[in-house]
Every structure is written in structure tokens, then in C-alpha cells.
Design brief:
The protein is mainly alpha-helical. It has 22 helices and no strands. It has one domain. Helix 17 (363-377) packs antiparallel against helix 18 (379-389).
Amino acid sequence: MYIFNLIKIISLSLSIILTFSGAAFSADNQLLNLDITTSFPAIIALLVFVAAYALVMVEEYTHMRKSKPVIIAAGFIWAVVAYMAVKMGLDVHAASYSFKHTFLEFAELFAFLLVAMTFINSMTERNVFEALRSWLVTQGFTFRKIFWITGVLSFFMSPIADNLTTALIMCAVIMAVGKDNKRFIGLGCINIVVAANAGGAFSPFGDITTLMVWQKGIVSFTEFFYIFVPSVVNYIVPAAIMHFAISDEKPQSSNEKVKVKDGGYTIILLFLCTIAFTVTQHQFLHLPPVFGMMTGLGVLSVYGYFLKNRDTDAKGFNIFDKVAKAEWDTLLFFYGVLMCVGGLSAFGYMTLTASYMYGDLGASTANILVGILSAIVDNIPVMYAVLTMIPEMDLGQWLLVTLTAGVGGSMLSIGSAAGVALMGQTKGIYTFFFHLRWTPVIMLGYAASIFVHFLWNARLFDNVPLMP
């Protein structure tokens, strides 16, 4: 019976692999572009997406998980795409090929993020982040020092741990230190959101948008570091101004001490090794980044097996519990958004948008507008739309849109996953309107980072060679 079940599993796995391989092989030649943007069905599909995203933006008030409306919208849009393809006399499998192509892109992103979340959850369970928070709280720093420490840590942690996870960890520190000081907590949260988004902009691991650009093969891993200096400017400018609004008093001290549990430091090492392997194999073997991450997950699961068999506090450690605790609402939200944008692309909306933004307005203006738009709509669908358009741009422009999409969401609290998460975590202290008061300051940092990028990376524009 065991062998029979094993054969069934292997057969099913092979069939899935062959199915997706066939989809990937056929997709480049079979992607739909119906060019019916003014037709009634296409307009209805677009309105459905707008309505679904409106529900996402008011999640704070409706308390309906953001994944639900976009998943339904994706199903509706692709049903309309398939219907119109058949009605127009195209191959009956044309819509299927396009759907599989888009879904394969999501599958790579999904598996990558799932592994990253599993590592983070494992480190959280081993008290790695609680120990960091405890150490900061017990040092007796002033509010201003903690403001800068949490900001700088957020900036340098987000390229590895991603901006959402980093923001949640640092917010816990801010709330533990600030307690009843609501102004400090609010300003500290703004600082964390700006820092985490800025830090995530120059690393493929720091934000979903940078990961998408890297997985697409447009910008190599090392080329992201060209926007390190602009990212620093994006964080420093608003932080330096908010500095004067922070009290220089010392918060109430605490004697709380938290120790990292058995295996915590080893998991940190495994995570860093997984990242190193992922980058190396992508650079030299040219396999997708998800290959390296999934291999790292395998190593973590084997280590977890030995860890839970020790006679220590790790007896209950189970790697599948860490997988189960991933942000499934966020992962399914990505599915809905990417599939919606892929479906709208099949109608021809992405081609139309590209011809206007990158043809009539020019690449620089278009890429700056992408950042502003990402503060309203969220950077994930905006960047995916750009990647679907694939406008012809040099490296300087691709890095510009990576920068603006990454840091543009800081201008509003709803513009990034980090901001939305902290609004929920602080329960009415850090709010949309509190953040809005400091939007002009954040916009100043946004403009300064773009200006610095044009100066610092001038040689990357107009196809000028990267090295002098």
C-alpha cells in the first residue's frame, strides 16, 4: 500500500511538472492580446477589478480580508477573457495558455515568499526577534535614540527579512518603549514604514516589487545596489525633520530579559546561507531564485527534525507549523492581484497604458508617476503592470521605477503592506490621518531620492556602459 501511494504521488508530481513546463513553453508564443479595451465586456472586467481593489483599500473598516475580493475578481476577469477569445474565433486553448503563463509567474513568487515566511516564523518561535526587542528596551536609550535605532535597524533589516516583517518587529519595540506616549509611537511608526520601504528598495529580498523585477531577469542582484544611496536619502530626509518632533527624554526603564531558544542562531545562519545560495545559483546556474529558496527550506526542515528530537525546549518544534503560520491572506492576495492584472493585460489595457505613459509622457515621468500611484493603489499591482508592459528602458530607468515603486508607498499609510500592518498593530495610535500630516515631509524625501538617483547613477541612463 505504501509503495502504491508513493507511485501515485510521483506520477501526480510528474504530471504537474509536465503541465507547467508545457505552459511555460507555449506561453511566449500564445499570450493573448485581444485589443478590445473599449468593448463592453472588457470595461465591465476593469470595473470589477476597480471595485475589488476599493474593498482592499477599506479593509481597515470592513474587516474583510483583502484576498477575498481580488480572488473573485480574478475568476470573473479570466472567465470573460476565455469567453471573448472563443467568441473572436481564436484557439480554444489560447486563454488557457495565457492563464498558465501568468499563474506560473505567481507560483514562483508564492513559493519564494512561503519559504521566506517560514524562516521568519521559525526565528520568531525561537525568540530571535523578541531577544532583540528586549535588549533595546533594557538599554535606557532616550526617545530620540530609539527613534533612530529602530529606523536604522529597519533600513538594514528589511533587505533581508522583507519590509513587512521588519516593520512589525520594530513596531513591537516602539510600543514597548513608548507605552502611553502616543506621539512617539505614531512618529516612530512613520519612521519605521519609511525606513523599511527604503531599505527594501535596493534588495531583491526587501520588497515584493524588487523580487518581481529580479525574478523577471531585468536587473541582476548586484545592480540593485546602485540605488542604495538614493534609498538612504529617501529615509534620512524625513527622519531628520521628524527628529525635532521627538522628545529627548528617557522612557521608563525595564529589566525584561529574553534569551534566544536552542537552535535560533543556527536558523539565522541557515537563512543567510539560503539567501547566499539563492543568489549564487541564480547568477551562475541561471535557475530561478525559487529553486535556491526551496532547497533552503529542505535543509531547514531536516534541521528541524533533529532539533525537535533534542532533549531541550525545542521538542515541540515542527517545520510544518511554521509553514501553516505564513501570511496566507497576503499570499492569496498576491494571486488575486497578479491574475487580475494578467487578465486585464489580455484585453489590451497594459499595451494601451504603456503606449501612453512610456510613449507620450516619457520613461522618467512615467516612472515617477508609478511611485505616486503606488501610494494609492499599492506597489504590487502597479509594478506587475509595468513588468507586463515591458517598456523599452535602460538600466537607469528600470532602477528608477524599482526605487519609486518601492518607496512611493511610504507617502500614505495605506500605500504599503508595512503601513497597513502597523495601523492594525497599534490599534488607533498610528492612523491614516496621523501619517497624512507628515506626507509633505515624506514627499520631500521621495523627490530628493529621485534627484540623487539621476545624479549618482547618471552613467546608467541612455545605455551608457555601467563601468567607466
